[in-house]
Amino acid sequence: MKSTLILVAAAALLPSALAAKPKLNQYGSMDDCNNDRNILYHAAPVSGRCYNLDDKTKAFFWATGGMLNPRVYHGKDCNGIEDPLSTNGRCIDKGSWQSFKMW
In the sheet where 23-27 sits, what is the strand order? Predict the structure, then answer.
């Protein structure tokens, strides 16, 4: 009986776990980001890999997909000053950030 309950609980959680995929979208404006249109670049970030933000990017959106440590960096290739991001993805002005990584 206990094993049946565990299987039912695991099956109920599976769709939400599969739906939580990491995402990094780059946009040419905050308006495009807020309205999810005209994506310049899209990535499904892999844990520990650095993603440089393009010079055309003015805003970006991230979703952690379960990774709990999103970071942005003031230098390319995840160098320089590092700032933490919320684990709740949202549109954010690129500002002086040049790269992104999460794990």
Answer: 39-43, 23-27, 59-63, 91-93
CB 70 within 8 A of CB 84: yes
Residue 13 included in any domain: no
CA–CA distance, 62 with 77 (Å, rounded to integer)? 18
In this prediction the pTM is 0.78
CB contact at 8 A, 86 and 67: no
Q: What is the pLDDT along the chain (103 residues), one digit of tens a residue?
A: 554 444 444 444 444 444 568 999 999 999 999 999 999 999 999 999 999 999 999 999 999 998 889 999 999 999 999 999 998 889 999 999 999 999 8
Is 9 a domain residue?
no
